Amino acid sequence: MQTRRSSVARGMFGLWLAAAVPAFAQDHDNAAAQANNPLASTTSLNLQNQFMGRLSGFDEPANSVLLRGAQPFSVGDTHWIARATLPVNTFPERPGGPHDTGVGDFNIFAAYLIDVGNPGISFGIGPQLTAPTASDRSLGSGKWSVGFANVLFDATSKVWQYGYLLTWQASVAGDDDRRDVNAGAFQPFLFRQLGEGWYLRSSGVWVYDFETDAYAVPVGLGIGKVAHLGKTVMNIFIEPQYSILRHGSGQMEWGIFAGVNFQFRL
């Protein structure tokens, strides 16, 4: 009798394990696919660094440490996500001159999440604001700017994910002796899952200045790793980038984008 009960217990445990392992693997795959989604419905905290090995016209390096966080929220029956970024910049004052380091301009946008009828596709659009919080003239625009942000992220495949972040902003107030802001940015991103949390990535930010016609089109190829820390999803990555097209002064010729992102799943 005891042997029969032991056999039944082992059989039930085997059935539970067979069901639980695929479920855990599926959850891990879902987390990996959503780890780079700017519109993921999770509270997130990111520490990222954009190193620029050389700025055109300056022949000098520069760096931006990006302190970034995102928080979903609701207004009535509508669902939104807000993302705020505060950079700590190190920029050259002038060609061949010294570098200044300090806080840059604070940026925030709120994207209204639109249901497109496919749970694997996230789409949002909404306003953005940039405040002139820079601690030095060379580290920010000196202008209050407003505009919009539009985000698409397609995670219908657990192997390939892709999308974009499109932003535009123009100055509405600020120092009269500073140049007006009228700038757009387009960030296409592509991710290829390799398994066990590893993935390849490309996410260079293409920029265009409508005031000066300066632009840069960086293309990157990097690698990342997604891991679970309890209910927290940690995403570590590094991505070398090179601008295949550029024009005007102050544009990145090459750089390295790296960081660690945390998504807190309650």
Question: Can you walk through the features of this model?
Answer:
- This protein has a 15-stranded antiparallel β-sheet that branches.
- It is mainly beta and 266 residues long.
- A hairpin with a 2-residue loop joins β2 and β3.
- The chain contains one helix and 15 strands, in the order αβββββββββββββββ.
- The radius of gyration is 22 Å and the shape is globular.
Helix and strand layout, with pairings?
Elements: H1 2-34, E1 43-55, E2 60-75, E3 78-92, E4 99-103, E5 106-113, E6 121-131, E7 143-154, E8 160-174, E9 182-195, E10 198-202, E11 206-209, E12 215-220, E13 222-229, E14 232-247, E15 252-264
Antiparallel strand pairs: 1-2, 1-15, 2-3, 3-4, 3-5, 5-6, 6-7, 7-8, 8-9, 9-10, 9-11, 10-13, 11-12, 12-14, 13-14, 14-15
Low-confidence stretches: 1-6, 11-26
Outline, from the CA principal axes? globular
Tell me what portion of residues adopts beta-strand conformation.
Answer: over 45%
Estimated structural class: mainly beta
Tally of helical runs? 1
Major β-sheet annotation: 15 strands, antiparallel
Helical content class: 10-25%
Order of helices and strands: HEEEEEEEEEEEEEEE
Q: Overall mean pLDDT score?
A: 90
Could you give the distance between the termini?
44 Å
According to DSSP, the number of beta strands is 15
